[in-house]
Amino acid sequence: MRYAVLSDIHGNLEALQAVIQACRQQRVEAFLCVGDTVGYGANPQECLEILRGLKAISVAGNHDWAVSGKLDFSYFTEDGQAAVLWTRNKIAFEQFNYLNSLELVYKNEDVILAHGSLDQPAQFNYLEDLPQAQEAFPLMDRGICFVGHTHVPRIFIQRGEKSYFTQILEMELSADDKYIVNVGSVGQPRDGNSLASYGIYDTGMAMIDIKRVPYDIPTAQRKILEAGLPEHLAERLALGR
Ligand SMILES: [Fe+2]
Fold first, then answer.
1. 110 C-alpha to ligand 1 centroid (Å)
2. For residue 152, is it within any domain?
């Protein structure tokens, strides 16, 4: 199976469209989403519709559950809180139900998905360093777990007794090792690179490849400003931070 793995789309329609177009050229057979389809960007409804059209399998992100009313979001940044309240007024009732129905963890025969970490997924902790990955590795009953949330692409590897992480984002996978993969963010990258980020996971070739694609940032920014969302949410798209 050749999967596209998307995460943290955050209502950025221009970025999502660019990523899907790139995926089409790569013979993707199924779409996986690691959460946070809504929040921050100006097109949450459209992004949810597109994922539904693709029959993407998704887990819940903290923004998804905050919008649906399932998560107390008083700890979000001011911009994050404003985006949750704005998004609630934009999406249809059935989309509330969809967001509300998303589970914290998904598993099939190939993969595990969890937005923050497999370790206490309801806490939506950031998995950004090795000690946090080491908490999650023992909980994995598959070779690969995709996470999101940090908006920074990174691959954590457990090989025998050793574990480490790498910024090398294209690699062959070994059946003996475990991998926690953050494919970065489609709609709001935070690694200093403003290009939309996504992953290709090919089980037949045992390959992971995290890719970047340009998109129409000025249009996404203009829509955020016209919507009355916080200006910083527009500015940061160009910075990739
Ligand atoms: Fe996010």
1. 24
2. yes
